[in-house]
Design a protein that fits this description.
About 25% of the residues lie in helices and about 25% in strands. It is α+β, with helices and mostly antiparallel strands. It has a 5-stranded antiparallel sheet. Strands 1-2-5-3 form a 4-stranded mixed sheet. Strands 13-19-18-17 form a 4-stranded antiparallel sheet, covered by helices on one side. The protein is globular, with a radius of gyration of 20 Å. Bound molecules: flavin-adenine dinucleotide (FAD).
């Protein structure tokens, strides 16, 4: 394992923020990861695990050791006539994994095409898009306990998945490093095209016969038309979660803003955060090199050279303005360092 000192992490986060890690290394195997937790010099240092850095904002330099997770490998664990059980190393690029499952004819992840980052980070916030979340096909994961380097298995139930949430963001925060993730996928796909513009895009492309690839291609094309490419403009996707509000507040909002979009949930009514931010006048706003994307107000961007503190300040101003105008609290989805 090669440890580098004073490593610039600009290329390791999709916001493209400059941050210096005192110590940095890439790990390729579970064994290497376990070695770190048993190493006298590193085991008591603060530790930050990085996947693709696509859901992180560096507002300062991290302390201690930053580990870039490169644990590779995709393996078929079990197969019957209807299902497959497939396991991926935490460092496998998520979109590559999705494309692999599609090429094999295994359904379940096609709506999650083109989400940046690694497979190991996907359970952290139960990634979701176009009506699908990973909890729908997730079977289990293996994670290393930071305290002693021991390997543990978490089932779907153990992960307590919720909207952009899991135990790894709540009760078990910073206690484990995810090493592998296992999914149960289907050989007889049930297509989910009703969400967003998927069906419309398929119709526009003259697709009458559904396939995993056709749905994936439609999702990719919608995402490319709406979201900024981090290789061109720094960003971390949705900066805020969509708030779920109670009925009384929703009724007050509806009275004042009859056009407010709403999605009933078991625990309240979900309102698109992008709509609230746009109505509060922030869409396309720019302050120095930090800004709000001009096609999707939920995405904050680094036009080049912004630091994390500028982006955090902009996010706080947006939260305050949405609270003042609508009385709705916006929670951040991005992880802050
Ligand atoms: C353009 C764009 C579009 C996006 N669209 C979506 C979307 O549609 N849906 C969605 O849900 N998300 C979306 N995201 C957010 C992001 O892609 C996901 O959250 C993704 O899962 C992050 O993966 P990562 O490997 O980049 O994680 P990182 O940003 O590297 O890490 C995120 C957090 O997880 C921790 N972590 C990472 N790997 C591990 C591990 N192996 N073990 C323990 N902790 C770990 C990190 O310490 C950090 O706290 C988008 C981001 C971008 C830039």
């Amino acid at each position: 394992m090669h440890i580098e000192e004073n490593k610039n992490l600009k290329a390791y986060n999709t916001f493209g923020i400059e941050a210096i890690a005192p110590y940095f290394c890439e790990v390729y195997t579970v064994k290497e990861l376990q070695e770190i937790f048993r190493n006298e010099k590193f085991r008591d240092m603060p530790l930050l695990i990085l996947g693709g850095g696509s859901n992180i904002l560096f507002t300062k330099d991290p302390e201690g050791l930053v580990v870039s997770n490169k644990i590779e490998g995709i393996s078929l664990i079990e197969e019957d006539e209807q299902h497959v059980v497939v396991k991926a190393g935490a460092g496998v690029v998520w979109h590559d994994f999705v494309l692999h499952t599609i090429a094999q004819g295994w359904g379940g992840l096609e709506n999650l095409s083109l989400i940046p980052g690694t497979t190991g980070a996907a359970p952290m916030q139960n990634i979701g898009a176009y009506g699908v979340e990973i909890k729908d096909t997730f079977l289990e994961l293996e994670a290393i306990k930071r305290a002693d380097g021991s390997l543990h298995t978490f089932t779907n139930e153990d992960c307590c998945f919720g909207y952009r949430s899991s135990v790894f963001k709540t009760t078990e925060k910073d206690k484990y490093v995810i090493a592998t993730v296992t999914f149960r996928l289907t050989k007889q796909p049930v297509f989910n095209t009703s969400y967003g513009a998927i069906q419309e895009t398929l119709d526009a492309g003259g697709i009458t016969e559904l396939s995993l690839k056709a749905v994936s291609d439609a999702v990719i094309s919608i995402r490319q038309s709406k979201l900024p490419d981090p290789k061109v403009t720094g960003n971390a996707g949705s900066f805020f979660k969509n708030p779920v509000i109670d009925e009384a507040l929703f009724n007050r909002l509806k009275e004042k803003y009859p056009a407010v979009p709403s999605y009933p949930q078991a625990d309240g009514i979900k309102i698109p955060a992008g709509w609230l931010i746009e109505q509060a006048g922030w869409k396309g706003y720019r302050r120095g090199n930090a800004g709000v994307h001009d096609k999707q107000a939920l995405v904050l961007v680094n036009h080049g050279g912004a630091n994390g503190e500028e982006i955090r300040q902009l996010a706080e101003d947006i939260q305050a303005s949405v609270m003042e105008k609508f009385g709705v609290e916006l929670e951040t989805e991005v992880n802050f360092v």
